[in-house]
Amino acid sequence: MRGEASLVIDGRHYVLRPSFAALIAAEEEIGPLFALVERAGAGELRLSEMTALFWHCLADRGDVGRDAVGSAIAARGLAASATPLRALLGAILKGGG
């Protein structure tokens, strides 16, 4: 699906899906999504915001905790984590589906 991305957490691939419910939950926590996109574009996105967005967008969270998501981002590095971030931000701006 357009806007989906993947993230490896503890050696397992997880789908990041920016569903309406996931984006609403993320917005409740980290504030307006348009402001999030602007901060990302300005290079001012916080690691905690990226972690929250990824965690809320996990299609099948199971027992994956937020710390595991943050650790996966740190292990992968910010540059490599920009790829799934761009997919999610693109879906926020353009719509998915």
Report on the architecture of this protein.
This protein has 97 residues and is mainly alpha-helical. It has one domain. The protein is built from five helices and two strands; from the N terminus they run E-E-H-H-H-H-H. Strands 1-2 form a two-stranded antiparallel ribbon. Strand 1 and strand 2 form a beta hairpin. Helix 1 packs antiparallel against helix 3 and helix 3 packs across helix 4. The longest helix is centred in the C-terminal third of the chain and has 17 residues. The chain is globular. The termini are close together.
Characteristics:
single chain; 97 residues; mainly alpha; two-stranded antiparallel ribbon; 61% helix; Gene transfer agent protein; Phage_TAC_11
Number of strands: 2
The description of the largest β-sheet is: 2 strands, antiparallel
Helix count, per DSSP?
5
Average of the residue pLDDT scores: 92
Order of helices and strands: EEHHHHH
- Integer count of domains: 1
What fraction of the residues are assigned to beta strands by DSSP? Answer: 5-15%
Whole-angstrom Rg: 12 Å
Could you give the order of strands across the largest sheet?
1-2
Tell me roughly what share of residues is in helical segments.
Answer: 55-70%
Distance between the termini: 6 Å
Structural class: mainly alpha
Low-confidence stretches: none
Overall morphology? globular
Pfam families: Phage_TAC_11
Protein name: Gene transfer agent protein
Organism: Erythrobacter litoralis (strain HTCC2594)
InterPro entries: Phage_TAC_11 (IPR021791)
